[in-house]
Write a structure and sequence with these properties.
The chain is of the alpha/beta class. One of its GO terms (molecular function) is hydrolase activity.
Length: about 290
Protein backbone atom coordinates (compact mmCIF):
# COMPACT_ATOMS: atom_id res chain seq x y z
CA UNK A 1 0.00 0.00 0.00
CA UNK A 2 2.77 2.41 0.92
CA UNK A 3 4.67 1.65 -2.32
CA UNK A 4 1.53 2.35 -4.34
CA UNK A 5 0.99 5.65 -2.53
CA UNK A 6 4.61 6.68 -3.11
CA UNK A 7 4.25 5.87 -6.78
CA UNK A 8 1.06 7.95 -7.00
CA UNK A 9 2.75 10.92 -5.38
CA UNK A 10 5.71 10.64 -7.76
CA UNK A 11 3.32 10.75 -10.70
CA UNK A 12 1.69 13.97 -9.47
CA UNK A 13 3.14 17.19 -10.85
CA UNK A 14 5.36 18.91 -8.27
CA UNK A 15 3.22 22.06 -8.23
CA UNK A 16 0.08 20.06 -7.58
CA UNK A 17 1.79 18.22 -4.73
CA UNK A 18 2.90 21.48 -3.15
CA UNK A 19 -0.59 22.90 -3.58
CA UNK A 20 -2.14 19.90 -1.82
CA UNK A 21 0.34 20.11 1.05
CA UNK A 22 -0.10 23.88 1.34
CA UNK A 23 -3.87 23.55 1.33
CA UNK A 24 -3.74 20.95 4.07
CA UNK A 25 -1.54 23.20 6.22
CA UNK A 26 -3.85 26.19 5.72
CA UNK A 27 -6.87 24.07 6.62
CA UNK A 28 -5.16 22.78 9.76
CA UNK A 29 -4.19 26.29 10.85
CA UNK A 30 -7.74 27.52 10.21
CA UNK A 31 -9.17 24.73 12.35
CA UNK A 32 -6.77 25.50 15.20
CA UNK A 33 -7.45 29.25 15.02
CA UNK A 34 -11.21 28.75 14.87
CA UNK A 35 -11.10 26.36 17.80
CA UNK A 36 -8.99 28.75 19.86
CA UNK A 37 -11.25 31.68 19.02
CA UNK A 38 -14.33 29.69 20.02
CA UNK A 39 -12.67 28.67 23.29
CA UNK A 40 -11.87 32.23 24.34
CA UNK A 41 -15.09 33.72 22.94
CA UNK A 42 -17.17 31.33 25.06
CA UNK A 43 -15.65 32.87 28.18
CA UNK A 44 -16.43 32.34 31.85
CA UNK A 45 -19.68 33.75 33.15
CA UNK A 46 -21.47 35.91 33.69
CA UNK A 47 -23.65 34.75 36.57
CA UNK A 48 -26.99 35.72 35.06
CA UNK A 49 -28.74 35.99 38.43
CA UNK A 50 -26.09 38.34 39.83
CA UNK A 51 -26.29 40.60 36.77
CA UNK A 52 -30.10 40.52 36.84
CA UNK A 53 -30.07 41.62 40.48
CA UNK A 54 -28.09 44.72 39.53
CA UNK A 55 -30.40 45.47 36.61
CA UNK A 56 -33.43 45.13 38.88
CA UNK A 57 -32.05 47.69 41.35
CA UNK A 58 -33.91 50.98 40.73
CA UNK A 59 -30.94 52.92 42.11
CA UNK A 60 -28.50 51.57 39.52
CA UNK A 61 -28.35 52.09 35.76
CA UNK A 62 -26.65 49.58 33.47
CA UNK A 63 -25.83 51.04 30.05
CA UNK A 64 -24.60 48.76 27.28
CA UNK A 65 -22.52 50.62 24.71
CA UNK A 66 -20.21 49.85 21.82
CA UNK A 67 -17.17 50.10 24.10
CA UNK A 68 -18.46 48.17 27.11
CA UNK A 69 -21.01 48.14 29.90
CA UNK A 70 -21.32 51.19 32.15
CA UNK A 71 -22.67 50.96 35.69
CA UNK A 72 -23.72 54.15 37.46
CA UNK A 73 -26.16 55.38 40.09
CA UNK A 74 -26.50 58.93 38.86
CA UNK A 75 -25.88 61.18 35.87
CA UNK A 76 -22.39 61.34 34.40
CA UNK A 77 -21.07 64.89 34.77
CA UNK A 78 -17.80 66.78 35.05
CA UNK A 79 -17.75 66.00 38.79
CA UNK A 80 -17.99 62.23 38.21
CA UNK A 81 -14.93 60.03 38.59
CA UNK A 82 -14.82 57.30 35.96
CA UNK A 83 -13.15 53.90 36.26
CA UNK A 84 -12.32 52.06 33.04
CA UNK A 85 -12.17 48.39 33.95
CA UNK A 86 -10.48 45.60 31.95
CA UNK A 87 -11.86 42.06 32.50
CA UNK A 88 -9.75 39.05 33.40
CA UNK A 89 -8.53 36.67 30.70
CA UNK A 90 -11.29 34.56 29.17
CA UNK A 91 -13.90 36.11 31.46
CA UNK A 92 -17.02 37.65 29.90
CA UNK A 93 -16.93 41.37 30.63
CA UNK A 94 -20.44 41.46 32.10
CA UNK A 95 -19.20 39.16 34.87
CA UNK A 96 -17.90 42.35 36.48
CA UNK A 97 -21.19 44.26 36.41
CA UNK A 98 -22.05 43.17 40.00
CA UNK A 99 -18.57 44.20 41.21
CA UNK A 100 -18.90 47.53 39.42
CA UNK A 101 -22.23 48.11 41.16
CA UNK A 102 -20.59 47.51 44.54
CA UNK A 103 -17.79 49.96 43.71
CA UNK A 104 -20.26 52.65 42.72
CA UNK A 105 -22.40 52.03 45.81
CA UNK A 106 -19.42 52.24 48.18
CA UNK A 107 -18.06 55.50 46.78
CA UNK A 108 -18.95 58.75 48.52
CA UNK A 109 -17.95 60.46 45.32
CA UNK A 110 -20.08 60.50 42.16
CA UNK A 111 -18.59 57.54 40.30
CA UNK A 112 -19.28 55.17 37.47
CA UNK A 113 -17.51 52.10 36.10
CA UNK A 114 -17.21 51.10 32.45
CA UNK A 115 -16.28 47.44 32.00
CA UNK A 116 -14.49 47.09 28.67
CA UNK A 117 -15.84 44.57 26.16
CA UNK A 118 -12.58 42.96 24.99
CA UNK A 119 -12.30 40.93 21.77
CA UNK A 120 -12.47 37.19 22.49
CA UNK A 121 -12.62 38.11 26.20
CA UNK A 122 -8.91 38.95 26.13
CA UNK A 123 -7.86 42.43 27.24
CA UNK A 124 -4.45 41.81 25.68
CA UNK A 125 -6.15 42.17 22.28
CA UNK A 126 -7.44 45.64 23.15
CA UNK A 127 -4.92 47.23 25.53
CA UNK A 128 -5.91 50.76 24.52
CA UNK A 129 -9.69 50.27 24.51
CA UNK A 130 -9.80 52.68 27.45
CA UNK A 131 -9.10 55.50 24.99
CA UNK A 132 -12.45 54.83 23.32
CA UNK A 133 -14.21 54.86 26.68
CA UNK A 134 -12.79 58.27 27.55
CA UNK A 135 -13.73 59.58 24.11
CA UNK A 136 -17.31 58.46 24.68
CA UNK A 137 -17.56 60.38 27.95
CA UNK A 138 -15.74 63.69 27.28
CA UNK A 139 -17.59 65.40 30.14
CA UNK A 140 -15.64 63.36 32.72
CA UNK A 141 -12.50 65.09 34.01
CA UNK A 142 -11.20 62.51 36.49
CA UNK A 143 -10.39 58.99 35.30
CA UNK A 144 -8.96 55.85 36.85
CA UNK A 145 -8.04 52.73 34.91
CA UNK A 146 -7.92 49.24 36.33
CA UNK A 147 -8.86 45.62 35.94
CA UNK A 148 -8.84 42.08 37.24
CA UNK A 149 -6.03 39.57 36.76
CA UNK A 150 -4.81 39.81 33.12
CA UNK A 151 -7.07 42.84 32.77
CA UNK A 152 -5.21 44.53 35.61
CA UNK A 153 -1.89 43.88 33.92
CA UNK A 154 -3.22 45.38 30.69
CA UNK A 155 -4.57 48.39 32.60
CA UNK A 156 -1.11 48.93 34.05
CA UNK A 157 0.50 48.76 30.62
CA UNK A 158 -2.03 51.23 29.26
CA UNK A 159 -1.49 53.56 32.21
CA UNK A 160 2.29 53.37 31.79
CA UNK A 161 1.98 54.81 28.29
CA UNK A 162 -0.87 57.23 29.02
CA UNK A 163 -0.29 58.40 32.59
CA UNK A 164 -1.24 61.97 31.73
CA UNK A 165 -4.80 60.84 30.93
CA UNK A 166 -5.48 59.27 34.34
CA UNK A 167 -5.50 60.12 38.01
CA UNK A 168 -5.36 56.59 39.40
CA UNK A 169 -4.62 52.92 38.75
CA UNK A 170 -6.68 50.10 40.30
CA UNK A 171 -5.41 46.51 40.37
CA UNK A 172 -7.66 43.62 41.38
CA UNK A 173 -5.78 40.34 41.94
CA UNK A 174 -3.15 41.60 39.52
CA UNK A 175 0.31 43.13 39.36
CA UNK A 176 2.22 45.55 37.14
CA UNK A 177 4.92 44.36 34.76
CA UNK A 178 5.58 47.97 33.75
CA UNK A 179 7.18 50.63 35.93
CA UNK A 180 4.67 53.31 36.92
CA UNK A 181 6.50 54.28 40.11
CA UNK A 182 7.25 57.79 38.81
CA UNK A 183 4.01 58.22 36.86
CA UNK A 184 2.32 60.50 39.38
CA UNK A 185 -0.66 58.14 39.53
CA UNK A 186 -2.41 57.16 42.73
CA UNK A 187 -2.46 53.36 42.91
CA UNK A 188 -4.54 50.74 44.69
CA UNK A 189 -3.86 47.00 44.68
CA UNK A 190 -6.62 44.78 46.09
CA UNK A 191 -5.67 41.15 46.67
CA UNK A 192 -7.60 38.11 47.82
CA UNK A 193 -6.30 36.25 50.85
CA UNK A 194 -7.58 32.96 49.40
CA UNK A 195 -6.37 33.57 45.82
CA UNK A 196 -4.91 30.37 44.41
CA UNK A 197 -4.35 31.69 40.88
CA UNK A 198 -2.14 34.75 41.18
CA UNK A 199 1.63 34.23 41.33
CA UNK A 200 2.15 35.62 44.83
CA UNK A 201 5.94 35.86 44.52
CA UNK A 202 5.78 37.82 41.28
CA UNK A 203 3.05 40.04 42.68
CA UNK A 204 5.15 40.95 45.70
CA UNK A 205 8.29 41.45 43.61
CA UNK A 206 6.36 43.70 41.22
CA UNK A 207 5.25 46.12 43.93
CA UNK A 208 8.40 48.12 43.25
CA UNK A 209 6.80 49.06 39.92
CA UNK A 210 4.05 50.92 41.79
CA UNK A 211 4.32 54.42 43.26
CA UNK A 212 5.88 54.47 46.72
CA UNK A 213 2.59 55.55 48.31
CA UNK A 214 0.49 52.86 46.60
CA UNK A 215 -2.06 51.23 48.87
CA UNK A 216 -2.07 47.42 49.01
CA UNK A 217 -5.14 45.80 50.58
CA UNK A 218 -5.64 42.09 51.21
CA UNK A 219 -9.18 40.79 51.72
CA UNK A 220 -9.45 37.76 53.96
CA UNK A 221 -11.55 34.93 52.55
CA UNK A 222 -11.68 36.24 48.97
CA UNK A 223 -10.30 34.06 46.18
CA UNK A 224 -9.43 34.91 42.57
CA UNK A 225 -12.93 34.32 41.20
CA UNK A 226 -14.41 36.41 44.02
CA UNK A 227 -13.56 39.60 42.15
CA UNK A 228 -16.24 38.86 39.57
CA UNK A 229 -19.43 36.88 39.04
CA UNK A 230 -18.44 34.03 36.76
CA UNK A 231 -18.34 30.93 38.96
CA UNK A 232 -15.39 28.79 40.07
CA UNK A 233 -12.04 29.17 38.34
CA UNK A 234 -9.68 26.24 37.71
CA UNK A 235 -6.67 26.29 40.03
CA UNK A 236 -8.27 28.65 42.52
CA UNK A 237 -8.42 28.05 46.28
CA UNK A 238 -11.72 27.81 48.17
CA UNK A 239 -13.14 31.09 49.46
CA UNK A 240 -14.47 31.38 52.99
CA UNK A 241 -16.70 34.26 51.91
CA UNK A 242 -19.69 33.84 49.62
CA UNK A 243 -19.48 35.30 46.09
CA UNK A 244 -21.83 38.13 47.08
CA UNK A 245 -19.82 38.97 50.20
CA UNK A 246 -16.56 38.78 48.24
CA UNK A 247 -17.76 41.27 45.65
CA UNK A 248 -19.05 43.56 48.38
CA UNK A 249 -15.63 43.49 50.09
CA UNK A 250 -13.88 44.26 46.80
CA UNK A 251 -16.37 47.04 46.07
CA UNK A 252 -15.98 48.58 49.52
CA UNK A 253 -12.18 48.58 49.34
CA UNK A 254 -12.22 50.13 45.87
CA UNK A 255 -15.12 52.54 46.19
CA UNK A 256 -13.96 54.06 49.47
CA UNK A 257 -10.47 54.50 48.04
CA UNK A 258 -11.85 56.25 44.96
CA UNK A 259 -13.75 58.57 47.29
CA UNK A 260 -10.44 59.74 48.72
CA UNK A 261 -9.15 60.73 45.29
CA UNK A 262 -11.18 63.97 45.20
CA UNK A 263 -13.32 66.39 47.16
CA UNK A 264 -16.62 65.90 45.32
CA UNK A 265 -18.96 63.87 47.54
CA UNK A 266 -22.61 62.91 47.53
CA UNK A 267 -25.23 64.72 49.57
CA UNK A 268 -26.24 61.47 51.28
CA UNK A 269 -24.37 58.49 52.72
CA UNK A 270 -23.04 55.76 50.46
CA UNK A 271 -24.79 52.40 50.52
CA UNK A 272 -23.93 48.88 49.50
CA UNK A 273 -25.97 47.23 46.78
CA UNK A 274 -26.96 44.73 49.46
CA UNK A 275 -28.46 47.56 51.53
CA UNK A 276 -30.71 48.42 48.61
CA UNK A 277 -32.01 44.90 48.12
CA UNK A 278 -34.73 44.03 50.68
CA UNK A 279 -33.88 40.95 52.70
CA UNK A 280 -30.29 40.74 51.52
CA UNK A 281 -27.76 40.40 54.33
CA UNK A 282 -24.02 40.21 53.82
CA UNK A 283 -20.99 40.23 56.05
CA UNK A 284 -17.97 42.26 55.06
CA UNK A 285 -14.48 40.78 54.84
CA UNK A 286 -11.70 41.89 57.17
CA UNK A 287 -9.29 44.21 55.40
CA UNK A 288 -5.56 44.21 56.01
CA UNK A 289 -3.72 47.18 54.52
CA UNK A 290 -0.08 46.88 53.65
Amino acid sequence: MRDALDAMVRRLPRRRTLALVGGAVVLLVAIVVAGGAAYFAAGLGPDADAVAAVEADPNVSVDRTAVGTAVRDGPVTSSTVGLVYYPGGRVAHESYVPTAAEIVAASDRDAFVVVVDAPLNLAVLAPDRADRVRERYPEVDAWAVGGHSLGGAMACRHAAGNAEAYDALVLHAAYCDRDVSESGLDALSVLGGADGVIDAERERASRSNLPADARVVELDGVNHAGFGAYGPQPGDDPASLSPDASREAVGNATGTWLSERGAVTRDGPSRSVSDRAPGAVRSGAPVVAG
